[in-house]
Design goal:
11 helices, alpha+beta, single chain, extended, 6-stranded mixed beta sheet, two-stranded antiparallel sheet
């Protein structure tokens, strides 16, 4: 039986004479290269100068190309992007064979994290200029993005209200017990009551819960000006306070974010993306459409969303935009929003004479 033996490892090879021949004409790296070259980064480039000692800096566009291509190929770590500059032909082509260290890539990201959304928005404007965005029909949908935190590190406001007095009481007992132990010790100064490790852990936990409760109240008051006190079910995560416990389609209950994208139907261009900590989509249409307006100064003639967006606020958003909205009305069952029980659509009765629906509660 004959098997393929491949090329001997000690055999010299002649790679293509041109670096440009390392990747094909339709390679994703070429798209990233052309798009980023069209971006205006003059403000960032002006911050660099050629005076003084040291080697020349890496071009900001080169580093941004590495980020864009890295994200598109699921490389989110600066170390992995740096490694790809030595192992991946597409990345090597983009970097023009430069090999920036991971610290350089990480520093660039930290310095310009607030500018990245503005730069990425230029992709949408390029698509508009190229006639790839028709503004005829737009679709909005969301997905749950797993947070870098465990759901077991989350605690509800109701649980905090119960746990804090319990810890305070336990702390009082421990302090009293240590005081009694100190009084019962002999006069020998070399004999001690032992370290108060448990007491210290309780103090740390109590302080963390109090801080989390304060943060939760502050965030709740910001998001709900009419409701000063968060309900018992409102939660916060100690590891990632901005995330929320959400029900996912395939992984059950997870600590996550709610990511929304808005897509133009003509060529499938994503014209906006937003992220929130809301566990469902019933309040997400407004922020998503505001992002479209902020990015491109435009809106769609028609907008379509699924039943998960069926809420009064989302219907009002479509009305205010002046777009023809196509929103699946959901089920006829009772719905629950912010602890309130709401009627399902099938429970409303239509009056053709007045062209209105009658609330079953009237």
């Amino acid at each position: 039986m004959k098997f393929r033996v491949g090329v001997p490892l000690d055999q010299p090879l002649a790679l293509p004479a041109l670096v440009d021949d390392w990747i094909g004409p339709d390679h994703l790296a070429r798209v990233v290269d052309q798009v980023v070259d069209a971006w205006d980064l003059s403000d960032v480039e002006a911050a660099f100068h050629d005076q003084g000692p040291g080697a020349p800096a890496y071009p900001p566009k080169l580093l941004l190309k590495l980020f864009a291509y890295g994200y598109l190929t699921h490389r989110f770590s600066s170390r992995r992007i740096s490694l790809a500059c030595r192992e991946d032909l597409g990345v090597m082509w983009l970097a023009r064979l430069e090999q920036p260290k991971h610290s350089v890539i990480s520093t660039f990201r930290q310095q310009h994290v607030d500018e990245l959304p503005e730069w990425l928005a230029q992709v949408v404007l390029l698509g508009v200029e190229a006639g790839m965005v028709g503004w005829k029909l737009g679709a909005v949908d969301g997905t749950k993005i797993h947070a870098d935190a465990s759901k077991h590190q989350a605690m509800s406001h109701g649980r905090m209200t119960t746990v804090i007095p319990q810890l305070e009481e336990e702390l009082k007992k421990l302090v009293a017990a240590h005081g009694a132990a100190d009084e019962a010790l002999p006069a020998d100064p070399t004999v001690t009551a032992g370290p108060a490790d448990h007491e210290g852990r309780i103090r740390e936990r109590l302080a963390a819960i109090r801080q989390a409760q304060a943060d939760l109240k502050t965030q709740w008051a910001k998001d709900h000006p009419m409701d000063a006190e968060p309900p018992d079910g409102a939660q916060i995560n100690f590891t990632d306070p901005e995330s929320h416990i959400m029900v996912t389609k395939n992984q059950g209950v997870q600590q996550a974010y709610n990511g929304q994208i808005v897509v133009d139907a003509q060529d499938g261009i994503i014209v906006a993306a937003v992220v929130s900590a809301h566990p469902n989509d019933m309040e997400e249409l407004g922020p998503a459409m505001e992002a479209v307006e902020a990015t491109a100064g435009h809106t769609f003639e028609q907008t379509v969303v699924d039943a998960g967006y069926f809420s009064a606020s989302n219907v009002q958003t479509l009305e205010d935009l002046g777009t023809d909205g196509y929103l699946a009305a959901g089920s006829d069952d009772w719905r629950t929003l912010k602890g309130q029980k709401l009627f399902g659509k099938g429970q409303f009765r239509y009056g053709p004479e007045a062209d209105t629906f009658r609330c079953p509660g009237d």
